[in-house]
Design brief:
465 residues, alpha/beta, Alkaline Phosphatase, subunit A, 8-stranded mixed beta sheet, two-stranded antiparallel sheet, 30% helix
């Protein structure tokens, strides 16, 4: 059972007797404010954070490990890809010949080549990847529900929130979906107040700006704040907040929004015009490239968890947009969308991003996670494509306390199944929380007020530097 002095539930209730006991702790140097502060930061004790921030680069659609970071050149025809592997800056790590710049930064990363699960549909696998919790079923119709777990960013905002004008977390430039919005991107049962700050604008567009962070013409901050205080008074008098948990969440969300509205620091972080053209060109003038540049600026401003989604949809017939899905093409030589779109964007943006973080001294304190919801079948199908394959795929991690130039686990000779040190998305989640200084077994309360751990996974100790 949880003790009031070492609580395991983020929503632990403190009885009057416990509070009186806590008041007596003052003679030992633990005053009531310090005691309550400790309760707010439960889950953070005993761990030293290796990472101040996480940038979660979600590769929606499912990138093929055989075309990127786990090539199988000795596999039979029909399994090996159309590209050759090349050496990288890290001993023993080979990558696709289409990624020569990326090969030069592999000495900065850890590759986990043994990630696996059983969800074959995008929405169920996407929820697993974005929350670290397996869905109740492998169903493409899986929709967002208070019964399902929240986003990583929402958990971080619940357990280790920032106080003041800078949001704990942000997500951009899309909310991902496949038919319906994929679960695991908002606060779910933790409440709306723990939703990430979501920006659904293209940061590569001319004149990119957030009018939400600007006051209405002719309205001062003091006047707006006075209006907010009046609204609180009316709400309290009508007892609105006593009746609706959702309303309580909106109340807190409004307060956060008001603080952000007053933040010059946050407005400056979103102002990409402050970056030299050379830097912006280096990242690539694409929504993904400029989003990663924006992510770097936000962690510099203090944001703890940034999610950058590669695409809004899984992909399709286009070779100029979309996620990593390769279905729908009938090309006898190659996968057109990979060669013409996915790999060129990855090649321009990923090495630029990691190098920029490193040169600025940010990489050691910023954990970068590059992963999709699953991989692709080792066997190339009759349409010269690869199908969904959650049984084995690769995740790339860098900075934030993980080893450099390291490979964890291995797939078998054809890249079909883990051959060594299998890892589940739960374990990636536990490792992220651990590196942020959050105990992975910290409990929160679900929609029916049951205590549940934020992760059922195990920390991947071998990848930690």
């Amino acid at each position: 059972m949880a003790s009031p002095f070492n609580p395991t539930g983020a929503c632990t209730r403190i009885s009057r007797r416990q509070l009186l006991s806590a008041g007596g702790l003052g003679m030992f140097g633990l005053t009531m404010p310090r005691f309550l502060h400790g309760l707010e930061n439960q889950g953070m004790d005993k761990l030293v954070a290796r990472a101040k921030s996480v940038i979660f680069c979600f590769q929606w659609g499912g990138p093929s490990h055989l075309e990127t970071f786990d090539m199988k050149p000795d596999a039979p025809e029909g399994i090996r890809g159309f590209h050759k592997p090349i050496k990288s800056s890290a001993d023993g790590i080979w990558v696709s010949e289409k990624l020569p710049k990326t090969a030069k930064v592999m000495d900065k990363v850890t590759l986990v080549r043994s990630v696996h699960h059983t969800m074959k549909n995008h929405n169920s696998a996407g929820y697993y990847a974005l929350s670290g919790h397996a869905p109740p079923s492998d169903d493409q119709r899986l929709k967002d529900s208070p019964d399902l777990f929240p986003a990583y960013s929402s958990v971080v905002d619940k357990i280790a929130p920032l106080r003041g004008e800078i949001p704990t977390s942000a997500t951009f430039p899309y909310i991902v979906s496949d038919g319906s919005v994929t679960p695991g991107q908002r606060g779910s049962f933790l409440g709306k107040e723990h939703d990430p700050f979501i920006v659904l604008r293209d940061p590569s567009a001319a004149g990119f700006a957030l009018p939400e962070l600007s006051l209405p013409s002719g309205v001062s901050f003091e006047r707006l704040n006075a209006r907010r205080e009046l609204q609180k008074l009316v709400d309290s008098q009508t007892r609105l907040l006593d009746y609706s948990a959702e309303a309580r969440g909106i109340e807190s969300y409004y307060d956060k929004a008001l603080a952000m509205l007053h933040s010059e620091k946050l407005r400056a972080a979103f102002d990409l015009t402050k970056e030299p053209d050379k830097v912006r060109d280096g990242y690539g003038r694409t929504p993904y490239g400029q989003s990663l540049l924006l992510a770097r600026r936000l962690v510099e401003a203090g944001v703890k968890f940034v999610t950058v989604n590669f695409a809004q949809g899984i992909g399709g017939q286009s070779t100029t947009e979309g996620g990593w899905d390769t279905h729908g093409f009938n090309d006898t030589r190659m996968f057109p969308i990979i060669e013409k779109y996915h790999l060129p964007i990855t090649e321009q943006t990923l090495p630029t991003f990691l190098t920029d973080l490193d040169e600025r001294g940010l990489l050691d304190e910023t954990l970068v996670v590059w992963v999709g919801e699953f991989g692709r079948t080792p066997k190339i199908n009759k349409n010269v494509s690869r199908d969904h394959w959650p049984q084995c795929y690769t995740a790339l991690l860098a900075g934030g306390g993980v080893k450099r130039g390291y490979v964890h686990g291995a797939s078998d000779k054809n890249g079909e199944h883990p051959a060594d040190k299998p890892v589940k998305p739960d374990d990636l989640a536990a490792t992220m929380y651990h590196l942020l200084g959050i105990q992975p077994d910290t409990e929160v309360r679900d929609v029916v007020n049951r205590p549940v751990p934020i992760s059922y996974g195990k920390v991947i100790q071998e990848i930690i530097a």
